[in-house]
């Protein structure tokens, strides 16, 4: 099976256009192909209720936490997210368990036998239908589905959810979504459906007004999560504690400034679900918040990867994410050693403007074609006044940074791109495996 599975994964990665590898060239807006593909597989997305989660930042954390709470409440929960970090199967889970290798192979085998009249689905279109069908086969009670890119024209937008969730809007993927917050908000709001309540975590008043206008045009009731006054959230020493008049006292396993807004969005979504008749207790919410990573397999969100030296990795990769990350990075033990890599189509100037100037930088590149070469990154950063060395390969850059931090008592942060974190975690997993053999 391992050989057959690897051949299947090679097919998915190499024979279908994949945004993860080639960027904008793989982005195929429009829903005609995905609707045809879904029909060929019997429209599995109609077999169970769905919570649809979009937004620029926080949609992954929000999706995983909602799934964690619903699992704790006793529901069988499908979870579809992207991208994966180590294993393709991370994208498709039921109660935290990844889709089986046999399930992946069986789906692709049946797809290859279909007559699709020359239609060539993208990597994301195929994996979306794979997820929808797997959830139907597993007879889930509910699925939490994360938007891939944008919303209005995203492959996941063939569903009619029980609630739509939009975390926030920030500048990212502007070539596909537009170069103003209003244009991006328009694309994100495309997951709103007539008669379906939308939960919005956006706290920028101007952007919130855009969403209110779009909700009215979609005939979608809208709830702004940040307007509740009976919730307090305290973050001290990387411990995020919530006091909620409805759900009680909660300890959130995910920490950091960004999780304040995510927590409010999640709680507002749970409020709405309970009003629809979903059986969710305080105990389930407490357990779900406290055990997100272990119950859903979430990785890469302010994730500690070493104690000596202290090393943290995070997948935040756009200006909105970095606005939250910088205060946390500045609170890490100094001297700071920062390992950074980015994709080549990212506007880096706004991020460079935020980076601390008293850190030692190790500029690197992930192992994907879209990655910006380490030496090119050094040159771009230098023009912005951020100086550092080029070390091709994430693992090598991390090792050099750790050695330096051990000598001066500092700490290490690794990030800039989801793919940088993916390379690091994959290398760490392989290192552990080799050590045990």
Strand content: 15-25%
Instruction: Indicate the CATH class of the largest domain.
Output: Alpha Beta
Distance between the termini: 22 Å
Structural class: alpha/beta
Overall description:
Strands 4-3-2-5-1-6-7-8 form an eight-stranded mixed beta sheet, with helices on both faces. The protein has a six-stranded mixed beta sheet with strand order 12-13-17-14-15-16. It is globular and about 60 Å long. The longest helix is centred in the C-terminal third of the chain and has 19 residues, at 418-436. The chain has 17 helices and 17 strands. Mean pLDDT is 91; it is low at 19-27 and 173-178. β10 (239-244) and β11 form a beta hairpin. Helices cover 43% and strands 16% of the residues.
Strand and helix layout:
Layout: H1 2-15, H2 19-22, H3 32-40, E1 50-54, H4 59-72, E2 77-80, E3 92-94, E4 97-98, H5 101-112, H6 123-137, E5 142-146, E6 163-166, H7 174-177, H8 181-188, E7 198-200, H9 205-217, E8 222-224, E9 231-236, E10 239-244, E11 248-252, H10 258-275, H11 282-290, H12 292-296, E12 303-307, E13 310-313, H13 319-330, E14 336-340, H14 349-354, E15 360-363, H15 374-383, E16 388-390, H16 394-408, E17 411-415, H17 418-436
Parallel strand pairs: 1-5, 1-6, 2-5, 6-7, 7-8, 13-17, 14-15, 14-17, 15-16
Antiparallel strand pairs: 2-3, 3-4, 9-10, 10-11, 12-13
Helix pairs in contact: 1-5, 3-6, 4-10, 4-11, 8-9
């Amino acid at each position: 099976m391992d050989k057959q599975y690897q051949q299947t994964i090679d097919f998915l990665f190499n024979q279908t256009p994949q945004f993860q590898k080639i960027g904008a060239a793989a982005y195929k807006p429009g829903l005609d192909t995905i609707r045809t593909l879904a029909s060929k597989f019997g429209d599995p997305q109609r077999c169970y209720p769905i919570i649809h989660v979009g937004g620029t930042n926080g949609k992954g954390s929000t999706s995983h936490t909602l799934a964690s709470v619903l699992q704790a409440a006793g529901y069988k929960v499908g979870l579809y997210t992207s991208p994966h970090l180590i294993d393709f199967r991370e994208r498709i889970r039921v109660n935290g368990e990844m889709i089986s290798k046999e399930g992946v192979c069986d789906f692709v085998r049946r797809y290859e036998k279909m007559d699709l009249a020359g239609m060539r689905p993208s990597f994301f279109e195929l994996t979306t239908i794979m997820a929808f069908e797997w959830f139907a086969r597993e007879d889930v009670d509910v699925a939490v589905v994360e938007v891939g890119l944008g919303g209005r024209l995203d492959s996941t937008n063939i569903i009619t959810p029980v609630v739509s969730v939009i975390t926030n809007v920030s500048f990212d993927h502007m070539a596909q979504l537009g170069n103003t917050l209003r244009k991006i908000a328009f694309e994100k709001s495309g997951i709103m459906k007539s008669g379906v309540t939308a939960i919005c975590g956006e706290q920028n008043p101007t952007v919130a007004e855009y969403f209110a206008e779009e909700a009215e045009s979609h005939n979608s009731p809208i709830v702004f999560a940040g307007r509740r006054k009976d919730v307090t959230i305290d973050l001290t020493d990387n411990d995020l504690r919530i006091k909620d008049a409805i759900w009680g006292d909660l300890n959130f396993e995910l920490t950091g400034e960004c999780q304040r807004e995510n927590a409010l969005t999640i709680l507002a979504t749970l409020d709405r679900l309970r009003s629809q008749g979903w059986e969710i207790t305080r105990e389930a919410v407490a357990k779900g918040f406290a055990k997100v990573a272990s119950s859903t397999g979430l990785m890469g969100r302010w994730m500690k990867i070493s104690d000596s030296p202290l090393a943290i990795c995070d997948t935040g990769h756009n200006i909105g994410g970095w606005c939250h990350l910088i205060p946390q990075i500045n609170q890490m033990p100094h001297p700071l050693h920062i390992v950074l890599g980015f994709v080549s189509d990212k506007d880096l100037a706004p991020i460079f403007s935020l980076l601390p100037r008293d850190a030692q930088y190790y500029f690197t590149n992930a192992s994907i074609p879209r990655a910006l070469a380490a030496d090119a990154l050094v040159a771009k950063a230098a023009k912005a006044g951020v100086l550092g060395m080029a070390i091709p390969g994430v693992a090598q850059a991390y090792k050099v940074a750790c050695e330096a931090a051990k000598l001066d008592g500092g700490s290490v942060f690794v990030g800039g791109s989801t793919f940088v974190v993916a390379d690091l975690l994959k290398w760490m997993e392989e290192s552990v495996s080799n050590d045990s053999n």
